[in-house]
């Protein structure tokens, strides 16, 4: 009993004096200690494989794969930062080094990656909408070229990195290495900044994504009407494009749905934003609110699902992607054991993949098989290929 009381006072004192440390609850242990790290682990593996697979598909000159590659890369980083933050809330909450890494590195980095993923998704929908307007033609707009898509993603990354720099200065350490709010966090400038970031990178993208999906649906309806009237005169390539556009709209609706239920609420209830958005600057209320903490746990799980869903979506909606993964796994299985032992990580395998990469892919074969069969009971989707 004495040990329990000492532990209680130890927890209570740390929770009282450290702004970032909150006493773990049973629900917190389950969510942050098991659910979120497991989801992020599979998500990191899936996104890593997705980046490798999509990088090998760059010979297909379509911006579709460029956006998917950068989105998978961003979500790979988000899986790592979210898993680190989750573990620091329960398992490593007594380790100052992990807490400081979470507060001063993972928090700003995760915000930047979240905003970048949102911007890439929005640009991707604009790209597909412009392409659908030329669905009957065999040419595509310059905006939909792979080089343009790469430049757009790099430009967005630069802009969002600059906008996210103030997140590195909202907390600071005192003389006892305890995290506390900085002067910037308590200033009116920070309140204006938080509202600007929330509206610009959460509310506004959600509205634009909804409008974009609506426009895509309207364009699809017009295309299907055109198909019914001119079906006999249209070439097979045009008909295939129309069918692919129909399937792509369903996949984009899935992406937007995951964003709406995960990213937007998590931004609103996070500690660094809820202080000003909900509690009008009351730091203690933002930290102690139990309903807010439960909502934060729920949105954290949804965010983990959001950033971890790329691999199942690609396997389900992109047959070419699934075929490449299956081909690589089957090819690795056919290798002689002697060749697998001789080939090390330092020597690149055929087509630029390392032996360790093939081992990760072989582990993912079960994921591919199960995901394609059971993940989403919707129409099989394929990406859009537009001839130059």
From TrEMBL:
InterPro entries: GPCR-Ligand_Int, GPCR_Rhodpsn_7TM. SUPFAM superfamilies: Family A G protein-coupled receptor-like (SSF81321). The chain crosses the membrane at residues 29-54, 66-92, 112-131, 152-171, 191-218, 248-274. The keyword Transmembrane helix applies. Its main location: membrane. PROSITE patterns: G_PROTEIN_RECEP_F1_2 (PS50262). The keyword Protein biosynthesis does not apply. Keywords: Membrane, Receptor, Transmembrane, Transmembrane helix. It is found in: Membrane. GO terms for cellular component: membrane. Coiled coil: none annotated. Residues 46-314 form the G-protein coupled receptors family 1 profile domain. PANTHER family: CNMAMIDE RECEPTOR-RELATED (PTHR46641:SF25), FMRFAMIDE RECEPTOR-RELATED (PTHR46641). This is Neuropeptide Y receptor 11. It comes from Agrilus planipennis.
